[in-house]
Write a structure and sequence with these properties.
about 425 residues, TIM Barrel
Amino acid sequence: MILSHYSIVYPYEEKPGYVLLFSTKNTSKILLKEATFKSIINRDFPTEDEATLSRIGMIVPDIEAEKKEVFRMLDQINEKNQTLSISVILNLDCNFNCIYCYEGGMKGSLYMTDKTAGLLIDFIKSRFALNMTNINIDFYGGEPLLSLELIKSISAELKSFAESKGVLYTFALITNGSLFKRRIAEELALLGLKRIKTTIDGPPEIHNACRPFKSGAGSFDTIIKNIKDTWDIVKISIGGNYREGSYEKYPLLFQHLKKEGLTPEKIYNMSFYPVMKNPADISSSIDFTDGFMTLNEPWLIKASIYSREEIFKRGYNTPKLMPSLCQIELNNYYVVNYDGGVFKCPSFIGRNNFEIGSLREGVNDYSQSHKLGNWRNGECEKCVYLPLCFGGCRYMSYVRDGNINCVDCQKPYLDAALETLIKQDIKYRPRHQGVQ
């Protein structure tokens, strides 16, 4: 048994005489005595350690076989996946006027019709396979709650269909949070709503400047009130979008949450992400030209570490480090636009060259147009970060390069940030660590 190709060793000053070992393949981590680590390198480590180190992916019998196994990971995930997942763009209308909206000039009074909703239900039924145990819908917009009655009718039909098959139907809302009143939450929970994700970009002055109502009025107080009124009905995730000059204001947001009684047990999880620059073929409603073009921008390293630390320090939950899988690569995942067009990523809606079919005509072969498996190349094969990246975000490549021909390599970012992110997990999630 030898050290895995996907194992990274870091110094661990917090515990002299130990090193930190992290597996990018299993996202497992363990503290090892330096002597134990040296024995692994020398291939003479005690047999009593072998079972544990092998189980968590730190040692393997054959590195070349391990690389081939990682190349098969997505195939295995697709084979084992028992959930049919559909993101549905119900409309391109919104009661907000966010400065960085990725839908930009596409927005308008554009709504899914009842006829298209019927085709959507037929599409889902036709895609349902015998081995599936779940049907899950993410309702997007625009603002999905502007199509509330359609959410109800679609969910009622799919809930009945799922029950007839002995499986579970659930759905989530990606919403700005302004319309999510308690009465609506109660009604939708009966139909299968389990979770909503809403966005708060910082304390009131920052959030209201970035995400005002169309009237120009601030939306912060309305969202906070709605979260307070509904957190006990469904799981509520809070996301936030930051720019280079705004992420350091997050402590002020936490002060507001504490003041309003929105303590960690009332929020399912929280995560903050940088605002992405709009691609050249789209303009925002307020001519927004800011935003990042790659995770490797130096300021993003500091910002991602800082924002995650602030979440942890306040006791809130945030997503764990785990393999990052592009939705485009998932067989049982589709995006349906309000007009019935079918895509593989919500960010690509409205771009005809990325449409893979329609509800009426079915789905076409998109393996070439979407560069499936573009990470299956010699450079990525050698990379220790492949299981965390798998070629990165194709939309990010499109924003930066105008096409998706090349991978969105995240190696510089992971070189600079991963050690600190892992040590954050050790500090704030200590019960998950092992010591040898």
